[in-house]
Amino acid sequence: MSQIETERLILRPWEDGDAPVLYRWASDPELGPRAGWPPHTSQANSLEIIHGALGLPETYAMVLKETGEPVGSIGLYPQDVPCPDLPVPEGMAQMELGYWVARPYWGRGLAPEAAAALLDRGFRALNCAVIQCCHFDFNRQSRRVIEKLGFTYFATEDAADGAGNPCTTLRYALGRERWEQRRLGQGEQP
């Protein structure tokens, strides 16, 4: 897995040495439940998660170039929930985009910046036909990010937040063709 660079971020694999800063952000009692996981309980817990969920292929620490410190996480994960309007041709992939940003960095546009880079990777390098994304109904910030990126709503599901409370998940999808049209519409070269 390689490193990805954006204007303000470096997306790189999580490292053991990131456990203290991960714990600082991920122990926030508001952050984890909004993203679908319980708050971290210790640096050791954060290290376990680096070795587990954050160690999965295509999972990246969002490192702020200005400080060299992770301020969030983003990844692409295999997804098998079908989107009725976007079939996945044989030999192509469907993945789900997931992300979170530490509370002090909310509202700075870091999630859309990182997500745009990962969508590019998914559609160009990982042969995705469809990339999905979802958010809990109460998470307006994630909804704005998803809509900015051009995803289209397609399903509502019953779920539980990271604290185990019942809630509703809204699921969105972005097909390769729509992504390509948006990319070319912004003046990028094929």
TrEMBL record:
Keywords: Acyltransferase, Transferase. Signal peptide: none annotated. It holds the Pfam family Acetyltransf_3. InterPro entries: Acyl_CoA_acyltransferase, GNAT_dom, N-acetyltransferase. Residues 9-177 form the N-acetyltransferase domain. The keyword Transferase applies. Transmembrane segments: none annotated. Belongs to the acetyltransferase family. RimJ subfamily. This is GNAT family N-acetyltransferase. It comes from Pseudoflavonifractor intestinihominis.
